[in-house]
Design a protein that fits this description.
The chain is α/β, with parallel strands linked by helices. The chain has a single domain, classed as 3-Layer(aba) Sandwich (Collagenase (Catalytic Domain)), CATH 3.40.390.30. It is built from five helices and five strands, in the order ββαβαββααα. Strands 1-2-3-5-4 form a five-stranded mixed sheet, sandwiched between helices. Strand 4 and strand 5 form a beta hairpin. Helix 1 runs parallel beside helix 4, helix 3 crosses helix 4 and helix 4 packs across helix 5. It starts with 10 loop residues before the first strand and ends with a helix.
Amino acid sequence: MVNSLYKYEETIQYNIVSRSRISNIELNNLTGKPVPASFLQEVAQNVLLKEKKKGMGLSLVIAEKKLMQTLNRQYRNEDKASNVLSFKIAEIGLGEVMLCPAEIRRDAKNYGISYRKAMAWMLIHGILHVLGYTHTQMMKKEKFYRSRIS
């Protein structure tokens, strides 16, 4: 188990092997509610493979609004829940992407897209941040990856 920002309640470990590229993707669901875990794993796998990351670990966390608000206040000085937060953590490899289903569900409704698609979009956004892209740099990449989500 990878060290992270909090104590894990549920862990699903994915080891993805494709053409000698290996990515470790660990999913931790702290909400106790069902999430599209295999779909999120597939999205993360596709982004990491396209970005040519070999043997790099990534932690995906599904978190409640309260935890997201606490971390957003602590790290970004914004006292509200965020839909996605990302952290570079060398011990993991790439880092950690945290998703808040409650916020993402609200966003999906506001933008007229499915919850599943909104989860994928926020995951892509978080992964690109962990990889070091700024918002300006990632616009074209996000558009590319989002176009492949059905």
